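Tutorial, part two.
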Amino acid sequence: MQYLKTRLKPLSIEIKADYARSLFELMQEGLLEGYCWQTTESAIVFLEEEDWVERGNLKIGSCQKYWHAWICFKFQNKIFVFDPCLQILVEKKIQDF
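Running the prediction step on this input gives:
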């Protein structure tokens, strides 16, 4: 997490002129929910060129699908998934997150 905090420190996000703070402050307050595409597109420019944004359906419950976006990045020869909206940071061990 410290790697991401260092890389994304210059990023400030404004949501509808109501909130303007760092990505991690907004993330901790749960204010990024619903802004996955905008947040990941803004954040990816602060990471390495080979890092990327993925989009797809997350399965919630037994049948609901949720169209979503998250960041995949390489750190110490491992690929991680960072989802600031759902507050997730995990190693990516499968192709489909």
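The chain has a mean pLDDT of 89. In part three we will examine how such features are distributed along the chain.
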